[in-house]
Amino acid sequence: MMTFKRSKAARRAGHALSALALAVASGSLLAAETATDVVEHVDVVGQAVSLDKALKEQRRSDNVKSVVSADGVAQLPDENVAEAVQRLPGVSVERDQGEGRFVSVRGLGPDMNAVNINGTLIPSPNADTRAVALDVLPSELVQSLSVVKTLTPDMDANSLGGTIEVESLSAFDHKGLFYTGSAEGSYDDNSGQTSPKFSGAISDRFSLGDGIDNFGVAAALSWQKRDFGSDNVETGGAWDFEDGARLEELEQRDYDITRERTGLGLNFDYRPDDFNSYYLRTLYSRFKDSETRNAAGVEFDDAQAPGERGDAEGWRELKSREETQEIQSYVLGSEHLRGDWTLNAQVGYSRSSEDTPGHIAGALFEGTDDFTDAGFGSTRKPTLNIGEAFYDANNFILDEVEWAEQDTTDTEKNIKLDLARDYELSGHAARVKFGGKLSRRDKDNDTNVWTYEDFDDAGIAADDLLLGNFTKGRVDYGLGRFGPGISDKAIKRLLGGLDRADYYNEEESRIGDYEMSEDIDAAYLMNTVDIGDLRVIAGLRYEGTDFRAKGTGLRDGTFENIEASNDYDHWLPGLHLRYQLDKDTQLRAAWTNSVVRPSFEQLAPGFLIDGDEAEFGNPQLDPLESSNFDLGIERYLGRAGVVSAFVFYKDIENFVYNTDLAGTGAWTDFDEANTYANGDRAKLYGLELAWSQKFDWLPAPWNGLLLGANATFSRSDARIEGQGRRRDIDLPFQSDTVGNLMLGWENDKLSLRLSANYKSDYLQEVAAVDDKAHDLYVDDQTFVDFSARYFLTKDLQVSFEAQNITDEHYYVYTGRDRYNAQYEEYGPTYKLGLTFTHF
Length: 839
Known about the structure:
Oligomer: single chain
CATH superfamily: TonB-dependent receptor, beta-barrel domain
CATH architecture: Beta Barrel
Keywords: Cell outer membrane, Membrane, Receptor, Signal, TonB box, Transmembrane, Transmembrane beta strand, Transport
GO cellular component, one term: cell outer membrane
Largest sheet: 22 strands, antiparallel, barrel
InterPro entries: Beta-barrel_TonB (IPR000531), Beta-barrel_TonB_sf (IPR036942), Plug_dom (IPR012910), Plug_dom_sf (IPR037066), TonB-dep_rcpt-like (IPR039426), TonB_rcpt_bac (IPR010104)
Membrane topology: Multi-pass membrane protein
Subcellular location: Cell outer membrane
């Protein structure tokens, strides 16, 4: 066990090699954990190097965490940060259009996990959630990723599943000049589109004053424009289960998408001597998402079973919007050594935003008459069967256009101070650490909506509103026959001739607006002591929260200004144990307490009351609290080898769920009163297993073989109430089984890797407490990826990657897996790239 007195250099992180790649080896990221101990110089790049580095960090860490560290060439075929961390044990991602987006840890949904960049919290650019969509962050800008699963008292206590920590590159990760550049082209099989990508990084150290190489500058840049698409058919869960299983409506959707990512990181380090250091970390990421969605759907006059035919109302709809998400992060900090004392100070500022300028939120064309002979086939992937009239554009007329714009900002400012002193406790090496943090967060949302309807009042003839005047080219839809698509340019031309002020929708514009502030004051005290082969960390953290919200409600046609507040305090004890059984085996145990505030959608102060129906947020929700227990063992098997097992248990109070309060309390006379409420208790427990091995003792060529696997098995129990009833559910987003399997092989020239990621089905959305049949579940998924890399020279490498080579789809079902709520296909993606690296 190491003692606490260490040199300054020994406390600094060494993540080595390029910002260009997230190393991984899906299997052994498995339970890997970050530590900040030794600067390493890596002379060889490859899968085994990356694995071995991650395991060394795990071995030294005081927390239970899993890591993805950057390496010169050992990249996974991942588009963004979310897809990279899904390779870790206990981690799964929620996908949007086939790309990883939000991260779940140990079965707890994205809102229950936090994201830090360079030690400061990253707020969410989305209006409704706290979860950070990690597809905003290009993987090339990241030096290392870790998922911290057991929080020490000196860490923010704002995660129940885990805290995702992102570190960007530093010039002190390399001994001298380092630079790399990459160019890549990708092909999307579903849309037939090709897309470019360019990235690069450079770092160097310079001498200032009397120092030698004491000032470092590092920069990384990434740009990608990806054109792709998806095909979708969905029912939204519109099944009538009272008379068998009969479908009420279905809709076909075709998506054309362009996503452009730009990322820039610029970091400075100054180390004038062995006792003082200063740093500035900056990161800027811009994610521009352009989406055009054509939809064609029917609502049957009478709910139908597969193969039946009848009359139906039909519609076609266009949605076309462009939104830009930005994340900015600036962290200024220093470290000072004064004898046995260490002082760390840091100021952080982060700002996330989402800007969606004026766009077509929905242009709806309805059938001029009912369509006859309408039906569908298959309950899992419904195929619309309908007469030729449905595919004639002149049988649809424009009913309504919704034009909208939205702007959301979320800023977080913090200042923190940490003091630590090394000392001896009864002859044992010990360290006491204490400090505090002030955090100020402000989030606001501004929405404006214009609803264009009653076009005859504007002097527009009915014949001028027929879909035939608004059609575009063929819709490339792969799940059946689609018919005419709608031109967004033609819709915009129509709206351009109307007075926008006449169509302003004040209700939709004001109810969703809000301003929220969340001030958190925190302080902690912790002590670490080494007693032989046992390390003990015990401490206590305090967090006091002051929450304020402003919004607008609408009560039977009258607007009301709403202000709400909620203050609360938490005392959060923690205990961590790490025991060295022998030089290669160690036990870990932890008891921690954490707290997560409800999402902004749940806390929103706005409401809508219309007669006997109501819908509203709940600013008085209590935060979620959890007592967490972890116990595990790790056995290290030489270079890039480990086998580990961890059990965990979480006792959660005040989990939040959607409910209907109609018939109770102030809502006794209401038919609907939809809001959010705190549940009593929920439990989550599970087992994480991980193994990886480099077979370098075998004869050639088998000595280049690498194998890795991890699996997490978990269960959850929760109870919801409403309308005088209650029932038991699983926690939303919790998959019972999550796993990775990796097979790799490499030598000095060639690196091959085949990896698979599996996630079992999970509850996505809870229906009414008395309507379990309409709960929505996401089906299990298995994604298989392949990568190959070859060194043309010692500095130049060519790569080939294939993502989703088994063409896995996304499927949401209603109650049971035979009843569709949503089915979506993406197809595989292929990449070819060239990378030059000098270090």
